[in-house]
Amino acid sequence: MYKLAYALTLIFAFSNAIFAQFIPEEKPYRIALLGCIREYEPAPALWKYTEINADLALWVGDNIYADTEDDPSVIANGYQTLGNLEAFKAFKSQVLFLATWDDHDYGDNNENKHYALKKESKQLFREFWELEDKIPADQEGIYYSHYEVAHGAILQFIFLDVRYNRDEPEIDGEMLGESQWEWLEEELKVNADIRFIISGSQILLNKETGSETWDNYPSEKDRLFNLIKTTGAEGLVFLTGDQHYGEVARQNEALDYDAIELQFAGVNQIEDPEKNIYRVSSVASSRDSYAYIDVYPKDIETDKAHIQLSIKGINGQNEVSYRVNIDELKRNVNYLGQRRFKESTTLTAMHSFDHLHLRYAKTIAPTPVSPKLEMQNDAGQLKINETSTYIFALFDEEGNRRSAFDTLHFEKLTPIPPVIQSNNKLTQGLHYKYKEGEYSQIPSFDEDIKKQGTISGLLIDEIAEQSDHFAIQFEGYISIPTSGAYTFSLRSDDGSNMYIHNKLFIENDGSHSARTRSNIVALDKGLHPIRIDYFEDYMGASLNLYWQLDDQPVEKVPASNYFIQVDN
User: Fold this and answer.
1) Please, which residues bridge with residue 530 across strands?
2) How would you label 287-297 residue by residue, b for 16+ Cβ within 10 Å and e otherwise?
3) N or C, which end of the chain is more exposed by having fewer CB within 10 Å?
4) Residue 134 phi/psi, 5° resolution?
């Protein structure tokens, strides 16, 4: 039943990915965080949420303060009061609301599975937050999941119920119940790029504080962390509430990567912060505050994929600002070596997990019995001499996969022979054509040429007659001193394209700041025809070509390696 639901959810998610390409890369996916709202007290920060252009709103618990032992109407009235707030209605009209609960909206302070009104409270929760389709009426608790697609990346939201099945605090006490644990295991196996686990109670708050933290249930916390490890779930961050302040906590390598908790619960409440041994940020200390997470799920030219937590006071002052790069949330293996090669290549893989083994297989996903990449001094090597695809993953001693799959493609290149063996009938330099105009992409050089001639290299400053709005075509031969696999890197501001043997080899077109594009080709020793087309839109004209033979250092292609044919 669950697997069908997961499949349908992902189909829906991927169908939405079609539209992701129209979202500007620079715009983050913004998640509003809310919690700890006394519905009968002023909540001016709610209005601030209507101004932040959120894409989704997560209510992380204590969303009302019912605090009743035996009267369900008190809970119902609390929800009605919250729902009638003008700011609540205005914000709800903008974004999708998703929620979990903690003790005060579950029903009463510090309540657990013995709470007399838990079934009635569950039904009121489902109705108010409009979650009847996500939470079955007969389910023992309010746990569920949700998926979004941002910039082509899948975001997974896992809402835990830490009240409905919760024991009294003890070493072997339970928080989730077996049905929820089984469900959670399946959720963590679903493919996702970034995962958020939402829990009303803090996960990374030490029990010495006396607060209702997962630390009071050590076997449950261990089980949670071990489940994340054994399912291989990566890209995971905890979101929690309960405490009337905001902070970031971090426990080093607790998940084989750092466990990170973004905690916020103080829309109109405040209390003195606990002495959290895992705290790594400042503390949000305003009574009225608001919080959001900006998600940049994919690497772009100028920055890594990351998430950014911001907690602000009512006047917009920054109280907590914390960034987490997505690659910090992975069991990283560093792979070194040429992916395209002439004869053979050696892949070097490095990781620092003493208790994990890197296993691999050709074409198919590795299993617990697949070959190990034997490590020496934290590195293992694999020699590859043909076009192939290898898939890698980390496994523990028990055979549990502990990382995502890494798929690496290797291509054996057929060297391209030169068109001319020697440069005896050539002279050093390049032909060029120059034209002027306002271009947003590389123009044709078949007409409107203002001047042409020869030049010693890619010297645009010596050719251009104005600082902006021009284009230049360079054409000639490049002398390859040694046969091998060459990585060429074309860097330009604005657009450029490189052709080898009249075929487009590097595409770097369009108006942009200085940007590098690269490609690999196997070339035999001798002279090979090249062409580089370039245009400058405005500000910062530049053009450079670099090369690298196999694993040798990168260097700029010397002007002495450019040639043109001599007239007889």
Assistant:
1) 476, 500
2) bbbbbbbbbbb
3) C
4) -95, -30
Structural contact between residues 512 and 541, judged by C-beta atoms closer than 8 angstroms? no
Tracing tokens 């619960």 back to the chain, one arrives at 265
Q: Mean pLDDT throughout 48-76?
A: 95
Q: What pLDDT was estimated at residue 567?
A: 64
* Alpha helical stretches, state H, 318-471: 460-463
If you compute the radius of gyration of the chain from its CA atoms, what whole number of angstroms results? 30
C-alpha of 415 from chain center: 37
Mean pLDDT over the full length of the chain: 90
Q: Residue type at 240?
A: T
Note the pTM of the prediction, 2 decimals.
Answer: 0.71
DSSP 226-258: HHHHHHT--SEEEEE--SSSEEEEEETTTTSS-
Q: Are strands 526-536 and 496-500 parallel, antiparallel or unpaired?
A: antiparallel
Contact 115, 106 (CB under 8 A): yes
Reported as half-sphere exposure (CB side, CA atoms, 13 A), residue 492 has a value of 31
Provide the pLDDT for residue 568.
52
Fold match, 15-329 / 426-565: no
CATH architecture, range 426-565: Sandwich (2.60)
DSSP output for 482-503? S-EEEEEEEEEES-EEEEETTE
CA torsion 542-548-551-553 (nearest 10°) is -60
pLDDT over threshold 50, residue 10: no
DSSP secondary structure of 27-56: SPEEEEEE----TTS--THHHHHTTS--SE
Query: Which CATH fold topology does 15-329 show?
Result: Purple Acid Phosphatase; chain A, domain 2 (3.60.21)
The per-residue DSSP string of 352-363 comes to --TTEEEEEEES
> For residue 280, is pLDDT > 90?
yes
Which is more confident, 32 or 256?
A: 32
The torsion defined by the Cα of 259, 146, 114 and 120, in degrees rounded to 10, comes to 160
Spatial CA neighbour of 458 closest among 493, 494, 432, 422: 432
Task: Kindly list the domain boundaries of the chain, sorted by start residue.
Answer: 15-329, 334-412, 426-565
The answer to whether the CB of 390 falls within 8 A of the CB of 382 is yes
Is 80 exceeded by the pLDDT of residue 227?
yes
Of 464, 439, 450, 426, nearest in space to 535 by CA: 439
Whether 258 has a pLDDT exceeding 90, the answer reads yes
Q: Shortest CA distance to 329 belongs to which of 450, 233, 444?
A: 233
**Confidence at residue 451, expressed as pLDDT on a 0 to 100 scale:** 96
What's the CATH code, domain 334-412? 2.60.40.10
